[in-house]
Fold each of these.
Amino acid sequence: MDFDTSILNLDAKVIFFPVRHHSPACARFVRELATKIRPAAILIEGPADFNDQISELNLLHQLPIAVYSYAHFSDNTRLAAFYPYCVYSPEWQALQIAKELDIPAEFIDLPWSKMATTKTAHHRYSDRELRQSQYVSQLCETLGIEGLDHLWDHLFEIDPALTLETYLDRAHQFCFHCRALDEPTLEDQQREAFMTEKIRQAIARYGGQILVVTGGFHSYALHTQLLNPPTEPQASLVFSYLEQCLKPAIVQQGIALTPFSYDRLDSLTGYDAGMPNPGFYHQVWQHRYQSSAQEDTYTHNAIYREVFAQIVTALRSHQQLISAADLIAVESAAHALAALRSHAEIWRQDIIDAIVTSLIKEEVTTTHPLLRAVHEVFRGSERGKLAAGISVPPLVQEIKQQLKQHDLEPQPIGRIVQLNLLEEPACSQLLHQLRILQIAGFNRTGGIDLAARQDLSIQWEEWSIAWSPAYEGSCIEAAIYGSTLLEAAEMRLLELAKQCEQQSESAALLLLDACLMGVQTLIPPLYQQLLTLIQSDSDFFAVTSTLTHLLYLYSYDELLGIAEHAEIGYLLQVTFTRSLWLLESLGQVRDQDQQLLNAVKTLLETVQRCDRTLNLDRETFIAVLARTSQEQTQNPVLRGATIGALWVLDEAPTEQVLTDLYAISNHLGDFLTGLFSIAREMIQRSPELLNQIDRIIAQFDDEAFLEALPSLRLAFTYFTPREQHMLSHTLTQFWTKSPAPILEISPEQIAQIKAREARLLSTIAQYGLRGIRE
């Protein structure tokens, strides 16, 4: 197929302007072309379902911003996409010049909800087609250029003397060849058919010349379809229509403006990526096009000087010193690299390579302070803010109304709020709903933590509330989950539950979150999800952690009002049974002693608390503990813990514990760690057992004692200092029949000892010895 030069005719009824999204050169030339031809209307690649609100883009927003389109389907899938706009985006400048010329502007792209799939790019102004192009790869290899970004800069961005006519010819030819070597996707064909129809409607409606601004990959196809419309429906489009009919129905959809940021734009990767380094191209727009438009002057390499000055400032702010000699070396290298690459000006890669070659003497990594400073400047710090008067989703209105009602509105100066959960449950539930929806500016910083449960004596929460630049955007983007706050929080929680594959503990925490948010209606669907996960989870520690959360919710949780909830009780039964099965098939476990002890404690506490109310299988529990405690190859810590649990339940006599002690004397410290952790109180009431432990230890030779000492010390840490004192007192009664002698010492002797101690400590301090505490 030959290139049709009629697409370059600026007197044609329809003029196609090919762009790369977020290209300053494209933004400059679209303004120049629109000013030159003054079309009857400008048609722009953008979501056609936003046309009813397109006037909102003419308000005084602080860029970057984005059109946010979202949809909820009948299979409970939620998908969203962004159409971001920077000051140098050609689509944005097309809108601005239309406003200045007082001509209509319309979006003509297929609404995103009509083509949304999990594989569809969520950044709608990405460069997917160009990045996948075989022609781009071949051209890069021919010219010795690395990748699309450098190729586009070389052909279109760097030369300030590039003219409109040259740009149009070069861009159309470039995009035509990209298209010629690659088959358009079904999505592309579907979109182009829709855009072609929109162009025909605009021709009939406006009568005059029409300027069409779209991604360059589509321009030639639209031109061809407009001149030579297909005589019969394309098979691929018929298939696409049938596929649409089979897709899940749209339950809810919406579209709105939302703030964006250069940081967010620069973080997009893969096929979602567009032009990189928005901060750099922002400087290009300001210095080359905006300033020249105002002053009709442009200084050669002004962009490089401004950007490099910002890099130096960023380096110094990070305490990275850079000398005048360094600056001279970098500038010389940058000029040489630009000349070597035939760049009309020093460009972004020239700056990076000059800094790397001139200043970095060690291994080059992306975390190097110099490169971090460069990327910080190239990324830019611009953050969008919406103008007043735009329409927002109902969820945003409700969030603001609820926050105002409870006096929790975020302010520029942050504040700490303490909530009494018994007196202010509604405030706590509101903040937890915002937390689940990831609304910026609301963070729990203290108070009771019902997930960790380290201190349940307090009944208050502490929250940090402060306005964040991301606050408004996070509210708008949360609208994908529903039109009311409660609905959105519920749907977000159910979405998180779907992601908990093979993670029963995570699902149990979501059940706790549902209770914290006051949405107990979620217990049934989460219950089914958690039940499935528990029955399929083969991780003993994960299942027993799940059991810990469920035990708390069922037995202790009067604060949230769901204690002894029937469905949670059934989950507790199932989890307990699953834990026993996994315990017996556990095998030898190394380096997870504390997790083992926590698991046995949870199982024991479950039986103690819920045996009667839930009719747990106590006999099986006892049998599993007995078999585990007698397994010769099992971890001694676990053996000690299981015999301790049997002892606590009065299912093993003290004599049995003594027998096991002697049988495992070569691993006594580890065995006692498990025993003391579970049966601490029983030990204190069994002086004879304590005496037998002492006798076993006394029989150790020096080497055996030193080997056992670390684990013995760990075992006795489960007793409080007062309990340790009582144990030692009990042992002394076995060692001697007479009471311990009373130490007699006079006040004068005490004074002499304290004076000597003071001199000793002074000498130690004088010589700087460490490890001695007064």
Note: Residues 278-379 form one domain.
Amino acid sequence: MADKGGDFFILNVPVGTYTLEVSCVGYQSKQIQNVIIEIDKTTRLSLVLSETVIEIEPIIVIRERPFLQKEEVSAIYIVRREEIAYMPIDYALGIVAFQPSVVRFSNAIHVRGGRATEVLYMIDNVSIIDPQTGDMAIHLSKGIIDEVIFFPGSFDAEYGRAMSGVINMITTRPLDQFRPQLYGKTEKIMPYYYDFGYENYQSSIHVPLARQLRGFVSIDLMHADDWDPKLFILPHKQRDDYSLYGKLLFTPLSNMTVTLSGAQSRSQFDRYDTRWKFIVDNYRSDLRQGNLQALNISYLPNSMSLFNATLSRLYTRRKYGVRQSGSYGLFDDFSFVDYTTLRWSSGGFKNAYGVSYPDFYIIGDYPEYQDKTSQIYKITASTDLHLSNYYEIKAGLEYVFFDFENFAYFVSDTAYQLIDEYQYRPKEHSFFVQHNLDYKIFYIKIGGRFDYFSAIIDTLESNTIFSPRVGFSCMITDKLLLRINYGQYVQPPLYDQMYGYYGLLPFPEYITDVPIIGNPTLVPEKTKSYEIGILGELSHNLAATINAYYKDVSDLVGTRLIVATPHDYYSYFNVEYANIKGIETVLEFHNAIFTGKFSYTLSYARGTSSYAEEYTDTNFIPPATDYYLDFDQRHRIFLQGIINTPWQTKLHLFAYFGNGFPYTPPGPEGEYEGRNIEQLPFQRQIDCVLSRSFKIGRISLEATIEILNLLDARYEISPLLPFDSDVHMWEFSDYISITDEYYHPAADLNHDGLITPYEYFVVYKEINRESIDWVNCYTAPRRLRIGVTIHY
């Protein structure tokens, strides 16, 4: 219902594309087609009705999505269903991989120079992050996603527990008509060296159960013989995943919507490490299970007010250790060997080369077993009030209760073990309020968020932090938009870093190999972010965006050595910082033949630590100054587009070009000259998807050919270490006779019963080359997958 000035609001419209009809007695009706509704955005329509004295057909207007939207006071990228369907990815996690703010490093997503754990992943506004480990609790198929809202670095006060970015995945809304779908994709048609055993099958169905009740169910199955492909297929890298998702939509009243959704996933996979190649079955395997239940109620008392309440439970279980040998079916969970039988791992000379080499294990097992569970109960309530045509206020509160359980068994040495068993129940509360002013050419957002974190340890104080957020935009002309944003963001440390092995202090004197000890006194990490952007519509089919950002990150978690009796150990502290800056440029263009997006990013990410455990994983002494972080990538180019070819065939292109990542070269005598002073070779990859649609009666079919790494470019992603030059003849002086317990015929090259220093040197160089992890230093070759989708 419009007011006297003809203005109207429609709140709580689900994400999607709609046709809006406007009518009034005495006026000709008008239909506006292709009205796109997106989450957290206002869709503005301006129309005029013509007077008429007789009833005539309505005017139909096809609306084009505007490029400039002034409520976007910071960068936001939206990936829609029609793009997602053809992306050469399998999980929703990878949907943002082609956005300009993103760096993919070591299978992780880094946003604007932040650590991988600084990104918040959500499904329908519910977090799916395990706060113990920082991992995603559930993995779902991209087929259930309608659109992904990606905030890279700056976001509204309603989002907490994130410092680098927010990725909100909006799932499919159940339809009011029966609609099944089947999908399958495989690469098993490829020759041996190009076949990594990948298969993926999906099925979904929309079911109208009643006039006011609709449902949607989806299942996804995936298998791979090598789940992280590099130069060629490797042993002990099998993976089997499945996921289930369901949603019920109930509308008991015209102004009330009740949504009940649930998800469950299971992922299990083996790992490969070159150091374990002689006894690879004794290396680590992982089992990860998760499920989510969420109840959401939306109530619209009038056209100017909206109330939302959500109750959710997230559960995740993470186990790893040495699994029982044998084959497993797709739905069979890994079973692990009895952790009390795990043996201390060590090297020796009883290998194929007959010489002892410290980087190869020949006896023993992976020295850890862990069974960790997290339950997160969350209640959120929010309101959206339009107090006038110009002024809107949003407010909400959140209560979170955690239940963490952990059992960890660590083989400290050949004689003793450590057992870390605990249960903690921390809690977090938050409250936010945000004022939005929409007046003429200006849009202003002023908000703040209060966060309360409690570790529930009697001797520790809780943390309460206020985070202001301010954003401003101005329509300089109808084709040019300026926006400025400032925000402070906080994130509590991972609870693993607070609780792990903390209860075992002080360690007994007989323990020799001590893991990293948790520190419950850790405080939240903090980021201050500044952003300025200019958006311009250069022509009818060409638009450009330029974003510049600057971030100061403090109180980052790192590790330091504690000198103690009877043993020194490492623990976590808020001692690291980072400074990040960059410029993002995006060009979007479309015509009848080609529609696409080109982006270029220039970024600098410097800091004192790339990840929390860095100084326990390397031999480096913490530097006095910062350095370029492991995931710093100076230049990055993405090209994504669709070419419309004849015969209902489309070619989807995805191209990536960028600098290699920095690395630390070894100096003389195994020392290191400087941190990340060298750079790996230039990176490039082009993927494409060719799709063709068919129709047979009421059944629609679509065939796809997906080619990954079209040019078969295999570039280096990690340095080839160690080098032959590290091995010198003068280091070997011993003679080993056949009567010596360390004699091995494989090292006796002339089989005369005596291993000379020269023979030992020659064989040692061979095993040194064997230890070079060259397979994992290069990207995977070209891969081809065939897929078929059937719609009814």
Note: The longest strand covers residues 569-590.
Amino acid sequence: QQLLSFQPYAERPQRANNFVSRLRQAMNARPKSMYTRKRLDSYDRRTYYRLLSQMGVDSEPALRGKLNINYANDWFTGHNTQTNWTADEFINRAAHAMLRAGLVTRSAPNPVTGNIYTAGFIGGKVVNPDIGIAGLRHPSFPVPQNQGVFNPTNGVSSGIQIFPANAYTPEVHRLLQVAANIYDATTNQLVYPNPPTVMRPVFRKYANPGSAPGLFISHYTEVTNDWQRIRRQSFMKLATVVLNSQLAFDTDLHINIHGVPWIVGAKKGLPNFNEYSVESIVQVSRRLEVNKGNKNNISPAMSRNWRTNQMYTLGITNVFGIEGWNSYTNAYPRRLAMDIRHQYQIGLWDHSVTNQSGIALPKLLTNLVSTPYNKFTTLQKKWRGREFKVPLNIGATTITNSIYSTGLKRFFPANRAFTNVFESGFAVPDWKLHITNRVQYFLVDLDLNRVVDAVNLDNLVTSMDITQLTTGQTGAASSLFGSGNLSEGAFWETNRVNASQGNRSPTFGVMNQIQVARGQKPVSAAFWRSYNNDPYTGRNKEKAIQDFDDFLRGTNIRRNPLGKYPSDTIRKQAPFTPTRKIYKRASWQANDPLVHYTVNDLTDPIITDRFSTNNVVYLRPPNTPLPRNNLGLINERYRPWGGGGQLADVNDYNFYAKDPLIVNSDAWQFPDNKFPGIGWLGRVHRGTSWQTMYLKSGVASLTNWWSWSGSFGTHNLMKGFDRDRDGMPDYWETLYGLNPQKQDAYFDPDIDGIVNLQEYRAGTHPLLGTSLLGLSTTHPTNDWRLLQLFTTAPNASAATGLLSVNQTNAAAWSAVFSGLTVLSNSLPDSPTLGAFVAEVGTAEEAHLIQPTSPQLDWILNGTHGQQTMWINGRSNVIYGMNQKRRAKGGFRTLGDVLSTPTLTEFSPFLNINPMEMALKGVPTEQQKYAIHENVMEWIPQQILSLLKEDEPRITVYAFGQALKPAENSIVTRPGQYYQMCTNYAVVGEVFTKTTYKLEDQWEGTNKVFRAVIEDYQVLAEE
């Protein structure tokens, strides 16, 4: 029964015995003594009203705009069909809802053109403002008309734009991944390991008169046993799809595009793609020759006629590898097959080329495009637990040791015919090596005829600035150079002795080489022998130095038997030839084996960054064996709770970045059936490493989170012309209001501290200050806003009577918490706690929350009334729910209640010292080793389905009467009041209650609100 007022609580049969009399007694005057009586104070007189305010009032069914996790429903009406979702229906709808809820739009004037820009952002990255799943509408987050570029008047989403601007950011992919993970958590089958749900994108092109068409991901569709047909389709380049006139507009395109990921749900027990590795080995040498011209110039007095010539030799080899890993203890029980596709393009450029104005005009020296590698292999044995497999490990010689002509800008083979090809002058090549790779990896369960892993990576780029690297490590090494101040990099210095002479002036690197060849600067004998191959003098340091010095001095010259000077008295090579052999490895590695589907998922700031030199090794001497790559080993990036990879990490025990006690892949505890409540979303993998959806209150360091999460920027799917050579493609500059013919890479027009080139690489907007949005929009606390998009209520009654998160009274919250079973970690503190848990496991005790317990007071009020203490800039104050609500000015969403630390990491039921942690800011031993993620988030996992967010509503009570003229009330006397009624009699009365909901809508570009009647009732007489 729905009660329309509080009056029925005081009427039979609802009221308890003596309820009214006891309430009246509490409010009436009571004798102070037998002679006097004292009127109750105002606090006691208002007992009844305080009682009413403590009670959680009734609510309408909280179903509109919500997607039922367990059963198919209509999010406009909330109607539940009690039938299971299909993958296509649920994942597309959930993705659309989360994309729309996560969208932020901003408008600002373009400082270049003066036009008004409206841009959409998700996680601080630019997306199309109508982003979503094509054709869908969400009642709470509609697409305003005139916001889409390619269908401005439809008021529905165009999809996820990938051209001309790429809105497929790491944050967008994560929301799509969460949609699939939620679905997969409810669809476990009888076989184990359960195959994941695999979704592939369906594309759509939109015409754009006068410009290139737009390309969007329209929606996703499930890949089942039709994978072989899809496998036979070739993957297309993005540019080919955009420019191909045979691909029709406004129709679904069932094609595959390089670099656009498939979505694979998170399931336990499955082997996964784990690493892609690129190794580059570069060896560069420089020989010098002094040519005196003829016998008349032998004397040093004629040195003005001498020429010093140089010859560069260069060799480049690359090695490519792919690795898979079964990160679980158990072997995979069924037959598997791998479908591997790989292609690379290697370009070597010389950036020393300039035009007459001095503008750099880099020349492409080598452009090696590999034949596509495509191999389908059935694995002969079961994939054992913890076993690595390396299906690809191949080498490619880009340049066999070859002579480089700095004048002709080309290579010659280093054979007998070209052995002594020296060039005059001291030109320095500026070599830059760029390698672009694409990889597809599909793992198929042959027994189930299902794809269990799918990876589609493109534009995996690594670079080497060879000339810059040759000068690296300039610190002197006494073991190589004795007491001198030389280093290996000193022979490759590019500054000139006389810069005004240009290439006619030797570099300091050349001068150092000559001085070592003459013995004027010392090097060790071992170092000398390592870098010289002359069988006569090169291996004998002292003899070689003496011969070369005699040549330069013109002494100890002997004629041949014919009386002529030998050729080595006219021209002679310097006996010391510096050589640098440089090894660089770029590795795209999975941190969490469940997170490996995009380039950003696999990118590390150190071992992947194309511009980083941290992963460069100088091989001394050049015949030193190459370092071992990481294939077949635990990834350097593998960092579950407590660490586990090869590198130490500040996040080893950071429960704001990863889930506590998820120490390996076997430790996951995903849901495996229908959800009992939306709080169980906290057990669903959120698409970032080692983390489920976030129900805790804490905020990690934003910079730390940015590097941990893989939010390194938008991975550019398509290159383009760059007329001004400022590193930003013309189409991108034009799209965002920059001048493509002006070198403005290091300008900052929006004054946000991020220059245009950084904005391009990060995927942010160059004209809209990113600092105002902040990196916080990528933080896991953004999961809070997603919770209110879902429900598990089987019908309208189950979604009625929920408590508002902005309820301020303890009694109402006591009704939510009382009787709730909670878990508490029960292991005692011990120096060996970590080792004990690793061997035996954790232990928990169950408790019931009592209505008036101090623990409930802690949840609601935290450390209220306690004197604040500050140590090292940290306060011992811990906010409860009431303090958090006041500080935030009210909880705006359902998930905002999770900002209360006493619900999770500072729960009164956790066996920790909260004061110690609050002051130190580091996890205690209990938090490191004894408190599981599900125990820490136990309370919100149980209560969230009992709560609801506030929505703007107005309740109007209206009283009306029907009247008629009373008897003898009509004036009958002549005059100005003739026939006037002077009195009325009431013939009917009505009392109504109308509830209005305020919904936002768009009128053009203006957001306005309209009142919608949600409920209308004629109230009964009381």
Note: The longest strand covers residues 272-291.
